[in-house]
Automatic annotation (TrEMBL):
Pathway the protein contributes to: Amine and polyamine biosynthesis; putrescine biosynthesis via L-ornithine pathway; putrescine from L-ornithine: step 1/1
Family the UniProt entry places it in: Belongs to the Orn/Lys/Arg decarboxylase class-II family.
Keyword Transferase among UniProt keywords: no
Species for this entry: Dactylosporangium aurantiacum
Transmembrane segment boundaries: none
Enzyme class: lyase
Positions of modified residues (N6-(pyridoxal phosphate)lysine): 64
Catalytic activity, reaction form: L-ornithine + H(+) = putrescine + CO2
Residues of the Orn/DAP/Arg decarboxylase 2 N-terminal domain: 41-276
Protein name: ornithine decarboxylase
GO terms assigned for molecular function: ornithine decarboxylase activity
EC number: 4.1.1.17
Length: 409
């Protein structure tokens, strides 16, 4: 992070911080910390902008990112489909009345019992990337529609996925032919450019690979019905990322130029992009100490209580930060190491972040852009409670809301 960005961050909230969750509003919330304040109107805005940016592409929200019932309900009310990683996620959707037929099961390796239950519930589209999974699907969900996960370049993402998942381009054709032979329906192709992808060309390259596969399969008499662009659409934290408009500017012409035909369904599975910016994590300062000349802040939230992505990126990950101090933008700032409440040092979240020199026990730290991969990662490690979500704004009915809802509809 450059000094210029640091100074700016000290004086102004980033432009993407939800207006409904400004420091004064957060200071007025008399709730025990930690909690995650979520502005559902931001989710609505993100969804609407995403749907408009890439015309003709249907959204299937990757609910692993934040499975709060309010967020699911808000997106369902807007007409979003959903992508699940497990039967547990499908059950959560069923509880709020989502039709499993509108759900994609995009985890390429699934427990056998989950396949059976999902199929029985009416889910009909399953991803795969291996021969083993195809045999499993053919046996447990005969006739199901299957879409292949391609391995693509995810090297410009913050969270790569292609080492764990994805068939090589040269294997993919044979795998879809095998699917047909096994009585399954060769339905589509998908990929994931890695979460928080930093370059627009990653989508163009991946679409080119999907297009080459579609062309090869056409020669075998197989016309795919779905191209699923996966996730990876970045959210704004501190570092600069390609805008949705820039990404759409790469995807839209690529769909025109690089596919031999337009499949009936163009899909995408955004997670982070739809929800990250909607939420602020609110934590309390439990202690302030100097250790070997380093300023340490101890919070009631750490990597194990929702901020795990700070660990996954070897402390390179930056979130926009603010405090409850009324002198936040007035006093000099000092570099702090910010850690969690547990007895484990690996719950440390930030090194060298600038915070007011006055910050002390009892103050609150506001961690912006915290709506993605936080609640769903949080544990009770060391007996400390995970953050509770609270919601403002939005269009969802409140039937499934946690008790601590504030404001909004
Ligand atoms: C299959 C699949 N689709 C979509 C996503 C969502 O990715 P993102 O949050 O980067 O949009 C993920 C995330 O891991 C995923 O595994």
């Amino acid at each position: 992070m450059t000094a210029a960005i640091t100074d700016q961050a000290r004086l102004d909230l980033p432009g993407h911080w939800p207006a409904a969750l400004g420091p004064q509003t957060l200071a007025g919330l008399d709730l025990p910390t930690p909690f995650l304040a979520v502005d559902l109107d931001t989710v609505v805005d993100r969804y609407t902008a995403f749907a408009a940016a890439i015309p003709g592409v249907s959204t299937f929200y990757a609910m692993k990112c934040n499975p709060s019932a309010d967020i699911l309900g808000t997106l369902a009310a807007l007409g979003s489909g959903f992508e699940v990683a497990s039967i547990g996620e499908l059950r959560m959707l069923q509880e709020i009345g989502v039709d499993p037929a509108e759900v994609l099961y995009s985890n390429p390796i699934k427990p056998p019992a989950a396949i059976v239950e999902a199929r029985k519930a009416g889910l009909w589209r399953f991803s795969f990337d291996s021969e083993g999974e195809l045999h499993k699907l053919a046996q447990l969900a005969p006739g199901a529609a299957v879409y292949i996960r391609l391995r693509v370049d995810d090297s410009t993402s913050s969270f790569p996925l292609s080492r764990k998942f994805g068939a090589e381009a040269h294997e993919a054709r044979a795998l879809l032919l095998l699917a047909r032979q096994l009585g399954l329906r060769p339905y589509g192709v998908t990929f994931h450019v890695g979460s928080q992808c930093g370059t627009t060309s990653a989508w163009r390259q991946a679409i080119a690979a999907a297009g080459a596969l579609m062309a090869a399969l056409a020669a075998d008499g197989i016309h795919l019905e779905m191209l699923d662009l996966g996730g990876g659409f970045p959210a704004r934290y501190v570092e600069r990322v390609p805008s949705l408009e820039q990404i759409a500017g790469a995807i839209v012409p690529a769909l025109d130029e690089l596919l031999p035909y337009r499949p009936r369904l163009l899909a995408a599975e955004p997670g982070r992009h739809l929800v990250a910016e909607s939420a602020v994590m609110v934590a309390s300062v439990l202690g302030r100490e100097v250790r070997a000349g380093e300023n340490w802040l101890y919070l009631d939230i750490g990597a194990y209580h929702g901020m795990m992505e700070t660990q996954q990126t070897v402390q390179q990950w930056r979130f926009p930060l603010w405090t409850s101090r009324t002198d936040h933008a007035l006093v000099p700032h000092l570099p702090f190491t910010v850690t969690g409440p547990s007895c484990d040092s690996s719950d440390t979240m930030f090194y060298g972040v600038n915070l007011p020199s006055t910050v002390d026990v009892g103050d609150r730290l506001y961690i912006g852009s915290a709506g993605a991969y936080t609640l769903s990662y949080a544990s009770h490690f060391n007996g400390f409670p995970p953050p509770e979500p609270v919601f403002v704004g939005g269009v969802a009915p409140s039937a499934h809301l946690p008790a601590a809802r504030v404001g909004g509809s």
